[in-house]
Amino acid sequence: MTPVGMFVVLSLAAGSPVGSGGFVYERESDADVLQHAERAFTDGTKHRDDAATARPQFGNAARGYDELWRRGVRNPALALARANAHRLAGDLPAAIAAFHDGLAVARYDRALRVGLEAARSAVSYPLTGDLARQCRPPTPATIGTRMSPLEASLAAWAFWLVACVGVVRYAMTRGPGWLVVAGAALNALMVLGGLWAYDWRQALADPRLLLVVTDDATLRRGNGPTYPPRLEPNLPKGVEAREVARRGGWVQVELAGGTVGWLPETAVQ
Amino acid sequence: MTPRNAPTIPHPSPPRSGVFVALFLLGTLTTTGHGQPAFFEPKEGFYGARGTAVTAAWAVEPGTIREGEFLTATLTVRGATNPHEIARPDLRKLSAYTAKFDPIEDTIGPAANPGTKEVAFAYRLRPRNRDVTSFPTLTFAYLNPAVTTSDPFQRLRVKWEHPITVVVAAAKPPPPAVPLDASDHLFDVPTGPRLLVREPFAPPPWAWPVLAALAPLVAGAWYVAWRRVYPDEARLARQRRSVAVRRAAAAIRRAGKSPDPAAGYAAAVVGFLRTRYALPPGVETPAEVGDALRAAGLSERLVAVAVALLRRCDAARFAPSGRADPSLADDARQLVAHLEAG
After folding, report:
1. Interface pTM (ipTM) of the complex?
2. What is d(CA B195, CA A68) in angstroms, rounded to the nearest whole number?
């Protein structure tokens, strides 16, 4: 698993090879699957004034995008289309999971970041109590979420080039200002390297699987329905949690606020 | 209390006529508002109407309705002497009606005409299904005070002769469409072949050392180019000398084809010396050139060679024969080359 891939979440829909109307994706090429998905998305958009008609279309589009993802097509553009299709189909947990899938391969993608935050804001936390504070994960602000590796490489090379040119220019003109320029560029290069090293460590800090609550569920103190609740209000759909352990059809999770409890396996994905 | 030893007095048995008296008294005490003992009233169909010529009739409309719709039935009672005392028949308690209609609701009927002895009761009824084809008959009894010889209660069978037709209900209009509650940006998703890219682009590992080495190479190449465009003083002098030698050689070559070759040789040599040793302006004659070369630090031997060559050129220019010495060109070239090398 790659460092960024540690955020990969399970997706139930992604495992289904059959689309709507008995359309078997297994026999279709990637391009055909994409064409079906895009057509369904377009049809859904045309019927956006009628949610009852549009949602199934977006559901079909989501299944097509899921199939492509299952086949190993992993890029931020597909992740965004997939997540939006799930969101428009009314499946908020699947949308959040799709955003995480996309960010696992492209942490720097701004559209995915914005989409994930928007999806998180749609989770129905109760207005009272501190459940939202317990469940809402913090927004990462490391450099890896702002710059792609390519952009960082180009920036580092630019700083290094400026440093070399500064030295050469000093050799040409004997002006001390060029040495200052070269030193500043080297400093910037070191800062950039330090930020990337910190980002790398943060990405490796928590390798536990990320789960998304798919149905309102009570976080309990033990792995059984007879255990008392850990938190009084139910966890709403879309809450993210880290998996700690599994036992007897129950999964122990840790919320972003540090609360640990048990949820039925059927209530998470 | 009777004493135990007191003689008992037997009660006489009441006479049979006393039963009728008791019933009469009971009936008198429990008469209804109609002035009739309640136990004499019919158990069904009597709603308190009195009169000698009471009539009742149903009016049901519409005759044809769609499934699920209501019809209105109005019962009008005429000829009663007590229209305001007649109770509304409760159709909900009559199985003949509840079997065919559900629900049955009371509603306000048409207002009675003043002065007429009539009262109307209206109902809203919904047929249970399309099998309802007729309206049930209502038994309506009334008390006729004119009848004294037999049962004073007259019974009417109130019918509605017209058929009722319940047709298939019209298709329900679809529920109003509810727009999808979502932001516009959700509908704007990327499309096209870029969605099929297997993984996002990332620089390969070898790119890092290549880029790291490329920067100093670029800077070094810039420095080399700069030194070529802007050479230092020594190289600049060498370049200048080289240019002066080339110019002198070209001038000697051109002088050989001119009408006065000796003058051309002398001019080429002096021009070279002027460039090479920075002779002051106005130095033209062999003696002046010799002095200037000595002042520039040239050896006496070379000064003598240069001055001798210039004198030979002057001699050749002003000789009576007018023929130039063919060795002057070679001697001039050798002098320039010698001075350049030395």
Report:
1. 0.80
2. 9
